[in-house]
Write a structure and sequence with these properties.
alpha/beta, 7-stranded parallel β-sheet, 5-stranded parallel β-sheet, disordered C terminus, binds 1,4-dihydronicotinamide adenine dinucleotide
């Protein structure tokens, strides 16, 4: 299939080309997909898109008008796709439902450990010849209470890993996962927020849970709580979180995602002025650790993403359908 691959980085080209084995005609485009770039897909059968590409009704209408029949997301989350509009335009949307939940779960625990033991600060200090321990005091994870919100593939693994550290793990999810119930106790969301020393978010972004962590949710939490979000930025009301950091309510914040990350992440902006004052305010706190949507970024995950994406395209080409087509699952999430 003639496929326009948007938001291409060097590693996308490398892994997708290897998995493709010449089966599809892949055209790699650096441009992010939005209303101004959708025209580039005219005449293609398929579009391959990533997390910060825009797939709203207007873009989907343009893609369908240009002859595109299938959108192959090379990611699990699909909050950036207007599925109703896709259906209306007869566009199939396929995704990679699972690639390496280990990659994201392990990165989550990495953020927890780094924040707790101030590894991000220690690294810089030691390089400058400063071996003082002042300000680096951490706490034992053993015996602490961790709360996992969303216990699908990734959340269940995070629960298991934190249980392995000796944490008491609380969980919240409208659908209880038996794999997670082995390591965690399911409780109502407000109880989780009130009891947890560490709260970690692992649910997809939906209209219902946008700003799940808002001023009210923060007010329920323990003083000095650690909040981790490796899921989707808009699960958190960033302004409320900044207020909680300033008041000391929030003791630690670890983010791999940010509400307005689309204009920032995945690019080298080190020679430019970042105009997002909310994001730059976050960067000023010593107890905030931000990574740029890299939790998925392991060799294993990229191989799996590429292989599944190519298999999705092949299945769609052969049958007009695909097991990883979004539809029923979208309603559940
Ligand atoms: P999954 O679909 O296996 O699990 C999501 C779980 O969240 C489901 O059990 C669902 O019932 C639950 N859920 C939905 N709404 C909820 C709510 N309001 N409160 C509590 N639970 C709720 O998804 P998976 O694979 O575990 O991924 C989770 C999220 O991680 C994805 O939706 C995506 O946003 C994010 N992600 C981030 C990556 C990164 O690189 N930072 C990479 C991959 C995924």
């Amino acid at each position: 299939m003639r496929t326009a691959v948007f938001s291409t980085k060097r590693y996308d080209r490398e892994f997708l080309t290897a998995a493709n084995r010449g089966a599809h005609d892949l055209h790699f485009l650096e441009a992010r997909l939005d209303a101004t770039t959708a025209v580039l897909a005219a005449g293609f059968d398929a579009v391959c898109a990533f997390v910060n590409d825009t797939l709203d009704a207007a873009v989907l209408a343009q893609l369908a008008g240009g002859g595109v029949r299938v959108i192959a997301l090379r990611c699990a989350g699909f909050n950036n796709v207007d599925l109703a509009a896709a259906q209306q335009h007869g566009l199939a949307v396929v995704r990679v439902p699972a690639y390496s939940p280990y990659a994201v779960a392990e990165h989550t625990v990495g953020l927890i450990l780094a924040l707790n033991r101030n590894l991000h600060r220690a690294y810089n200090r030691v390089r400058e010849g400063n071996f003082s321990l002042d300000g680096l005091l951490g706490f034992d994870l053993h015996g602490r209470t961790a709360g996992v919100i969303g216990t699908g593939k990734i959340g269940a693994l995070v629960a298991k890993l934190l249980h392995g550290f000796g944490c008491e793990v609380l969980a919240m999810d409208p659908f209880q996962n038996p794999d997670c119930a082995v390591f965690a106790q399911y409780v109502p969301r407000d109880e989780l927020l009130a009891r947890a020393d560490i709260v970690s978010l692992h649910c997809p972004l939906t209209p219902e849970n946008t700003h799940l962590i808002d001023e009210r949710a923060l007010s329920l939490m323990k003083d000095g709580v650690m909040l981790i979000n490796t899921s989707r930025g808009a699960l958190i009301d960033t302004l409320a979180v900044i207020a909680a950091l300033k008041s000391g309510k929030l003791g630690y914040l670890g983010l791999d995602v940010y509400e307005e990350e689309g204009d920032i992440f995945f690019e080298d902006l080190s020679s430019q002025i970042i105009r997002d004052d909310v994001f730059t305010r976050l960067l000023t706190f010593p107890n905030v650790l931000i990574t740029g949507h890299q939790a998925f970024f392991t060799r294993n995950a990229l191989e799996m993403i590429a292989a599944t994406t190519m298999a999705n395209l092949a299945e769609f080409e052969a049958t007009g359908g695909c097991a990883n087509r979004l539809g029923a699952v979208a309603k559940r999430n």
